Amino acid sequence: MIITNNLNLPSALVEAVSNDRHNKNGQYSATTLLKGTCETILMKRHWDEIKTDASENIWQIFGTAVHSIFEKQKDNSFKEEFFSVDVSNSKVTGRVDSYDMENETIVDWKTASVWKVQFKDFSDWKKQGLIYAWLLKKNGLNVKKCRFIALLKDHSKSKARFDASYPQSPVFVFEFDVTEKDLQLIGEFIEAKIKALEIAETLQDENLEPCSSEERWATEGKWKAKKEGRKTALKVCDTEEEAKECIKDITGGYVEYVEGCSRKCEDYCVCKDYCPFYKSLIKNK
Which residues contact 153 (CB under 8 A, 6 or more apart)? Predict the structure, then answer.
């Protein structure tokens, strides 16, 4: 990956955000399995061509620093242990932040935004924790619980003081029990994802299936029922028919279509320039 330095930042900082290739050939990490198949394949194929600026990767320094601090904590656990399991013709890997042997608990440290807590958007953490639990189970270690401890980098004390729904602390803990059913389901997910990745490896870029709407952070297009002279919509509808029904008896009423978007594609995917879905997206705009 080519790291540019458009802001002329110190070389030590640029070096700190420069990443090595995440997966070796034939290996897929737990965090990689959470990404879209198309994104994963394009990232691997075009790694040496992809450009990103150092300023865009600044938050990963905080994550690295947090992990470095807690690696030094002395307790009844092992830290940063690497695990690997063969699946089909590939290997699934994971490096676990910490495993509490006494309580059979995986602990993972995160830096996150407040919005993740406000929107209760923990599905990726849960899936990541279960992949780790599956890896440990396959290596002879039982896991009863996963615990994610998140440091909220944009927490505001003033907002917490006046809004009871706002996270009241800059540290948030998300944890869940691990059941045999969870491990069975995540095992099925892993096997299906590995098969999809192995098939995608044989396809040309233009033939790759797009990432799912969830993986693209996609929102659907909406129809707004509006009235002349009013700034806000009378109602936001899923269909044009529904919006027209809302304004049928309103003088000066009209409908307006608002396109959906794939937020990750547009703002956060570093391999979008090689993606057939993204190319078609911008071509049709």
Answer: 59, 62, 111, 112, 113
Domains and CATH numbers, the chain: 2-205 (3.90.320.10), 218-283 (no CATH)
For residue range 102-149, what is the model confidence (pLDDT) as tens digits? 999 999 999 999 999 999 989 999 999 999 999 999 999 999 999 999
Q: Mean pLDDT across the chain, nearest whole number?
A: 91
- pLDDT (0 to 100) of residue 285: 65
Check: CB of residue 62 under 8 Å from CB of residue 153.
yes
What is the Cα–Cα distance from 276 to 32, expressed in whole angstroms? 20
Q: Alpha carbon 7 to chain centroid distance?
A: 27
Residue 133: name the closest of 66, 188, 83, 195 by CA. Answer: 83
Angle 52-53-55 from CA coordinates, rounded to 5°: 135
DSSP state letter for 120: T
CA distance 150 to 117: 9
